[in-house]
Design brief:
The protein is about 20% helix and about 20% strand. The strands form five sheets. A nine-stranded mixed beta sheet has the order 1-13-11-5-7-9-10-4-12. An eight-stranded mixed beta sheet has the order 14-25-24-18-20-22-23-17, covered by helices on one side. It has a four-stranded antiparallel beta sheet with strand order 2-3-16-15, with no helix packed on it. The protein is an alpha/beta fold. The radius of gyration is 24 Å and the shape is globular.
Length: about 550
């Protein structure tokens, strides 16, 4: 019997005894992330920091049955994550601020450190209480005030400084200049932020994860670097540009901040959210504190096969590129941005990836029209959707991890049939249910194929992941057909994930039908995972994509807490 099913039975039994209290309250997911869009002050406004850009490279029509986007995105965009190499120099540089933590980039951060119990330190009384161009300072006294009101801080807490700054000033431009630019230009007071001594005090409490709803954790005009180093030298990480912290209770909620896993990233764009109410927050807090966490996200790197090369010339997706733009002499490091497909590495598949919006007639190519007619005869209407990444609730991509092992399908096709992917059918899912128990509504179903684990390799040994299967030089990865997707929806499953490059497989017709089935049933996908075979039975899956407006993909990070 699965552990989760046993827990449900035990809980139901305890509920029958009036002398035993059962935790009440509805579990709610709270989005704490800023919207990333070109007309918002999402990027640092001084030269030479690049502005965020989204390019709709292909839209559904004669050229493509999919909406395909490319992103130019810097790690200092929107809600973002800072890690020690932002201020700690590499040990080989042998400088006053050198240390081993100078190598603790975003791709090296342990998954347990992303989350913990939210402790919201209310500093709204500081908002705008400073001269123009200067930040009101959060001091250790503000933290001690929180401790007097609530409890002493401890290891495993996520300290969140709530000033409501981003809630008030993160607006479309030009009004949005008040968020960062006006403070830098001494036209308005700066955002509230902790001083270095506050960081030192938090270190005595063994707090390793922080957040602020200011644009940066660095007070203006001169304490930005001292405050950063004061915390990062201890191995702290933190969220900058959080929002909606007023929706969290002062203590008790689970808070998490994750982002794409860029190789060598001293900071990174991300997604912050919280979970409050019911039993789930306590469970996840305890897992994070005990460091019971598993990272399911391969590292994004320019010499690895991050995006599809396509079948034939001109069919490739935007390759993943790292673009240096500003050199830091002290850190001997280039600040950089990335040009990437919106589905590079671990990513979200929203309904609008394969579905057109309402009121927009679609002129498919003749072959695709034939596929659509066949699909609708077998599986019902294709449907429409305008649900892009920013509209997908975080709760849809989090849930009990239900791993379905389909590695037995590997090697079951014959070479003369290639390119082909072994199809994951309803029968395979039912066989797993016979062995491991029925699917439960809102489970996140994760297909374990082993493909990424085996074939994710650097150039020139990178052809096994995408290129060989697509070109018929090797068998494709196991992938669900539309019938399997329809069955999962009937069981109440909202999110389907895979440790293969995608859920479609290498056959264009079946792949498109699978994505039509997902989208038309308001289901979402999470693709390009690894390490799935190590997920324990009691694992809780957490995935969050960067909150990019009008995006038909969405890079992100997936972890499991257990």
């Amino acid at each position: 019997m699965r552990i989760r099913q046993l827990l449900i039975i035990v809980t139901a039994t305890l509920s029958a005894w009036p002398s035993i209290a059962v935790v009440a309250g509805e579990t709610k997911f709270i989005d704490c992330s800023l919207l990333v869009a070109p007309e918002y002050p999402a990027t640092w406004p001084t030269a030479p920091f690049p502005r965020f850009q989204i390019t709709h490279q292909r839209t559904i029509g004669p050229d493509s049955p999919y909406n395909i986007d490319a992103l130019l995105i810097d790690g200092n965009t929107g809600t973002q994550l800072d890690v020690p190499p932002h201020s700690v120099a590499r040990p080989d540089l042998d400088r006053p601020k050198s240390g081993e933590l100078g190598l603790a980039y975003t791709d090296k951060t342990e998954a347990w450190q992303f989350g913990g119990e939210a402790c919201v330190v209310d500093v709204r009384d500081l908002l705008n209480k400073a001269a123009k161009g200067e930040s009101p300072l959060v001091t250790r006294e503000h933290v001690m005030r929180f401790e007097k009101q609530h409890r002493k801080l401890r290891c495993g807490d996520v300290v969140l400084f709530r000033s409501d700054y981003s809630d008030r000033y993160y607006l479309p431009l030009p009004a949005g200049n008040r968020y960062i630019a006006d403070a830098l230009d001494h036209k308005s007071p700066g955002y509230p932020d902790p001083d270095p001594d506050c960081m030192e005090f938090l270190a005595t409490r063994e707090v390793m994860t922080l957040g602020t709803d200011s644009a940066s954790m660095g007070p203006l005009p001169t304490l930005a670097e001292p405050t950063h180093y004061a915390g990062l030298k201890y191995g702290m990480i933190w969220t900058e540009g959080a929002t909606n912290l007023g929706a969290l209770p002062s203590t008790g909620a689970f808070y998490c901040m994750m982002g794409p896993k860029h190789k060598g990233g001293p900071y990174g764009e991300g997604r912050a959210f919280a979970i409050a109410g019911g039993d789930l927050p306590k469970r996840l807090i305890e897992s994070s504190k005990a460091k019971r966490a598993l990272d399911l996200t391969p590292t994004l790197a320019i010499d690895f096969p991050m995006t599809s090369p396509g079948a034939g010339a001109g069919q490739h997706r935007q390759v993943y590129l790292k673009i240096d733009f500003l050199y830091s002499e002290y850190l001997d490091m280039w600040h950089h941005t990335h040009l990437m497909d919106s589905m590079a590495g671990t990513h979200l598949v929203p309904p609008s990836f394969a579905l057109p919006p309402a009121g927009k007639p679609v002129q498919y190519a003749p072959e695709i029209r034939g596929w659509l007619e066949e699909y609708e005869q077998r599986y019902g209407k294709r449907g429409i959707s305008s649900m892009t990444t920013e509209q997908v609730p975080v709760s849809w991509t989090c849930g009990e991890a239900r791993v379905i092992d389909v590695t037995s399908l590997v090697g079951t096709t014959i070479k003369r049939s290639w390119p082909v992917s072994p199809e994951i059918t309803v029968a395979h899912i039912k066989a797993d249910e016979e062995k491991n128990g029925k699917l439960i509504a809102d489970d996140v179903v994760i297909f374990h194929t082993g493909h990424v684990d085996k074939h994710f390799k650097a150039q020139p040994a990178d052809t096994g992941l995408w290129l060989d299967p697509i070109n018929g030089e090797a068998e494709g990865w196991p992938a669900p057909g539309p019938g399997a997707i329809a069955y999962l929806k009937e069981q109440g499953v909202r999110c389907v994930a895979t440790d293969a490059p995608d859920l479609g497989g290498v056959e264009p017709k079946r792949a498109l039908m699978t994505y039509w089935a997902l989208g038309s049933r308001e289901m979402v996908g999470v693709e390009f995972l690894n390490n799935v075979g190590n997920i324990p039975d009691d694992g809780y899956f957490l995935f969050a994509a960067v909150k990019i407006r009008d995006c038909h993909g969405g890079p992100g990070r997936a972890i499991v807490l257990y």
